[in-house]
Write a structure and sequence with these properties.
With 98 residues, this protein is mainly β. Helices cover 5% and strands 42% of the residues. It has one helix at residues 77-81, and strands at residues 14-19, 24-32, 38-47, 55-64, 69-74. Strand 3 and strand 4 form a beta hairpin. It is globular, with a radius of gyration of 14 Å. The protein starts with 13 loop residues before the first strand and ends in a 17-residue tail after the last helix. LSm subunits form a heteromer with a doughnut shape.
């Protein structure tokens, strides 16, 4: 777990980002700037469905604009590695409405 404040403590760690349009992107935080634009490496998007398991779409090196980010969270890699994504079912997130 991180013990610092802000995104600095999460650099080189796996994070989960929820975007304003409801996407869930997981990857290794490589950097960020004052506008909270972030750079993820080895990233993938998790697409949730109520009918089939979670699809993981490979994105690779990926940049997300800060004004499109709703939530950034640290991912527990040990717990995440034990999840069977093919059996998970969930409603996709709805976009943020301002």
């Amino acid at each position: 777990m991180s013990n610092g404040t802000g995104l600095e403590s999460l650099v080189d760690q796996t994070i989960s980002v929820i975007t304003n349009d409801g996407r869930n992107i997981v990857g290794l935080l490589k950097g960020f700037d004052q506008a909270t634009n972030i750079i993820l490496d080895e990233s993938h998007e998790r697409v949730y469905s109520t009918k089939e398991g979670v699809q993981q779409l490979v994105l690779g090196l990926y940049i997300i604009r800060g004004d499109n980010i709703s939530i950034v969270g640290e991912l527990d890699e040990e717990l995440d590695s034990h999840l069977d994504m093919s059996k998970l079912r969930a409603h996709p997130l709805k976009p943020v409405v301002h």
